[in-house]
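For practice. Supply one:
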Amino acid sequence: MAAAPAAAGGLVRLRPPPPRCVSPRASASRAPRIWGTPPRLRLRRRRALALAAPSVAAAEAEAYTEPELVLLEALLGVQGRGRAVAPRQLQEVESAVQALEAQGGVPDPTSSSLIEGSWQLIFTTRPGTASPIQRTFVGVDSFRIFQEVYLRTDDPRVVNVVRFSESVGDLKVEAEATIKDGNRILFRFDRAAFTFKFLPFKVPYPVPFRLLGDEAKGWLDTTYLSHTGNIRISRGNKGTTFVLQKSADPRQILLSTISAKTGVEEVINDFISSQNGTKTDLSILVGEWQLLWSSQTEGESWSSVASAGLKDFQIIKEDGKLKNSASPFPGLTLNATGNICKKGSGNTFTVSMKEGAVQVGGLQFPLDAQGDFVMEILYIDNKIRISKLNQRVLVHLRIANTT
């Protein structure tokens, strides 16, 4: 301990030692066991849900089975409903889909009333044989895609809907539907039209379905339908896999809004206000995070960007060490390293960046990236982190667990 100069009477005043960080590993070891002793990945996920805002955790636990949650978790962060997905994440999605198909859901789903209604498309594979509508609209995050299934009417139909926005309108492509067996629906497209809010009439979609012959026909197999009617997996005659959901997860809505780059702050505020806050444990921060969105970053110098972690990636280790990495140009990487420490008993952490470096190919040069920041966790679960760093709001997606 450092001593101050001796005061009168020979007394020496000692400055108190600086506060020590609580070890994330130690904090985790003291945490109560929530779900017994499942496999490590499941334990991490459920610990994350327990630490996350209770309303999301409770809603998920009530509406979905564990294998369904694994699929939804794997889909978080997929852009364009499958347009852009890393190979590792695609493998996780395919594995989760196959697990649900093997498990089996509602038997003879085409005979169940649960298949009826409007389904939102949240993921699809996009082979080269995909329809023009898929290639044109499905990968655009600013559009919402639905499939309406009506089999118990005098005019059974499957309707694909592209919703441009609530204020603009939508495109509906309709098909006559016939149930072949307990899993398969046969369909034939026969009409389509745009409905715009600013026009009192429909605008025909210029595709001559009658002249297309067999090209306008197809089939759709439902390979999994959840017992709650919340999740459906279907495979089409062109080799396409579809994952659909009756009601979207609030986190999916948030990530879709970030991808669309419109109204992000409003959606973030609504999302946070709908959650019930809880204390955040240091251990849930451990992992590799990708920055999806940040407020107030225009005009920032690259040294401050690297120091504050306002671009690209962030890795947090179990010992509290932190590394921010940003690549402003191909072949150029800015790195900054430091420590993160919990402050008090709430959701506030101190971040101290110590060193920085610029890496160009195999060469490395020092970078002044020192800085001290205060980070408040506004929301966190096993996939998403929303935080405030010196008045900037940041949204991160966890892309890996790091030990």
